[in-house]
Amino acid sequence: MAVTSEVIPDTVIPEIGIPVLDHGFVRLDAAMADDLSVVNAARVSFARRREEVDDADAGLIRFLMRDRHGTPFEHNSFRFHIRCPIFVAREWFRHRIGSFNEFSMRYAKATDDFYIPDADDVRSQVGKPGSYSFEPVAPELAERTRGELQAVYDVAYATYTRLVEEGVARELARSVLPVGAYTEFYWTVNARALMNFVSLRAADTAQREIRRYAEACEQFLAELMPITHAAFVANDRTAP
Ligand SMILES: Cc1cc2nc3c(=O)[nH]c(=O)nc-3n(C[C@H](O)[C@H](O)[C@H](O)COP(=O)(O)OP(=O)(O)OC[C@H]3O[C@@H](n4cnc5c(N)ncnc54)[C@H](O)[C@@H]3O)c2cc1C
């Protein structure tokens, strides 16, 4: 059964989606996803079919997760609408198992929304690749960083707007825009690939900004496929 975001029962997630960062969000546009689909995909091996998930089925889901029988987790679909900075989208688009369609800065004017981190999120980076640690910077540096980002964004967007007004094609004028500019895309993904994304991008090792988005996506997984999600968490958040 197709479940749209409007009819998810007892959801604690606002219908407009989950706000992320200063101008972004994760919104579930539609979904066809439940734990029963996992059970029936697995039980078809024995020509069996369930109408509801019982305790034995929940055990089956935990077994499939633990032993990494991944394919029964593929018979479902989440269609997300995402708004995030371009640098987050670049990391996201590395996840090949899923479908993307993105806002085009060739055909439409770029937004003037740019990412300015909260002061608490302005951080230092120390250590080696693979084991960096990130520490807050002094309040004065945090505020100056935020101010300098805003100043660069203002100049970049003013230049972009002027070039477009003077007749330069948007596809070329966009070259002046920084990767902190916001973009939007649709992402359709099944639970197996979504768990892979969450396991990598909600981890401590992932960049803080994409981690916030991964955590938001995970809330939708937990909402629609609670037994699958619980098994994923119990399996050290390793995707099957
Ligand atoms: C913390 C972190 C740091 C990173 N740093 C870098 C970096 O410095 N440079 C960089 O380029 N990337 C970097 N990446 C991206 C990373 O290498 C992966 O491209 C990205 O995480 C997508 O993971 P994936 O391939 O598992 O996901 P998906 O592409 O969604 O694939 C899901 C799964 O499908 C299977 N699969 C998909 N395609 C193939 C294939 N062609 N062959 C075999 N199996 C396949 C694999 O089992 C894979 O795990 C980083 C990722 C993280 C999380």
Portion of residues in beta strands equals 15-25%
What structural class do the secondary elements suggest? alpha+beta
Q: Low-confidence spans: pLDDT under 50, at least 5 residues?
A: 1-12
- Using DSSP, what is the number of strands? 8
Radius of gyration: 21 Å
Which cofactors or ions or other ligands sit in this model? flavin-adenine dinucleotide
The whole-number mean of residue pLDDT values reads 93
The major beta sheet can be summarized as: 6 strands, antiparallel
How far the N terminus sits from the C terminus, by CA atoms, comes to 24 Å
The global form is elongated
Helical segment count: 8
Would you write up a description of this structure?
There is one protein chain. This protein is α+β, with helices and mostly antiparallel strands and 240 residues long. The protein contains eight helices and eight strands. The protein has helices at 35-43, 55-66, 86-92, 139-165, 170-173, 191-201, 208-224, 226-234, and strands at 3-4, 18-20, 24-32, 77-85, 99-102, 123-126, 133-136, 182-189. Strands 1, 2, 3, 4, 5 and 8 form a six-stranded antiparallel beta sheet that branches. A two-stranded antiparallel ribbon has the order 6-7. Strand 2 (18-20) and strand 3 (24-32) form a beta hairpin. The longest helix has 27 residues, at 139-165. The chain is elongated. The chain starts with a strand and ends in a 6-residue tail after the last helix. The model is unreliable at 1-12 (pLDDT under 50). Bound molecules: flavin-adenine dinucleotide. Residues 94-97, 193, 196, 200-201, 205-206 line the site of flavin-adenine dinucleotide.
